[in-house]
Amino acid sequence: IRKLFFANRKSFAGILPGILFAKRIIRETPEAEVTATVVCQAVQKVKKLEGLDPKAPVIVLGGKGFIGRRVVSMLSGDVYTVDIVHDNNQNAWPNHLYGEKVVLVNISLKFVLDDYVSRLWPGLVVLNEVYPEPTPATVEKLASRGCSCYHVVGVSGRAVPYFPSAYQGGIPCCAAWLSEGIESLLLKLT
Fold first, then answer.
1. Per-residue pLDDT tens for 91-137?
2. Strand pairing of 170-171 and 148-156?
3. Considering just the CA atoms, what is the radius of gyration of the chain in Å?
């Protein structure tokens, strides 16, 4: 299809790049690199917006997955991975961080964040990259626990037609390409 349209590149969305890569149907995954770069940029942006120390710890929910591994390798400082697929025990949660100013990056699967809300504390900042964005009920639970929540819309840019809901006004990470001046776009949910 890409060749029929004389396009220089193609992108796959969601979990498709990871599946196709694992089955060796594709060999390169530029979508993953862009997404990881944008998420890391968003982490720094959220820390600044929330007045956190640039070296504040980061918990990566889904940190051993297709995108998560890339994000963890790009982040510096104290980074903790929690992965429901790869961590078979409940001891993976970094309980020693309780009460600290921390960013929780959700790059796992939809609705997994709901399973961890009860472990969160006031002042913790959630940065969601998972599609779809957290439900209003999840956002309400986060707010009631005193957590801020941001959603990664993607990158600044325009699309025709516009993307719906929490993706309006940007280009999803998987459809973007790395370029000089690429800028993460966030939506504050709480």
1. 689 999 999 999 999 999 989 999 999 999 999 999 999 989 999 99
2. antiparallel
3. 17
**pTM given for the model:** 0.89
The sign of the CA dihedral 44, 154, 87, 111 is positive
How far is Cα of residue 143 from the mean position of the Cα atoms in its chain?
A: 19
Q: What is the bridge-based pairing of β-strands 184-188 and 148-156?
A: antiparallel
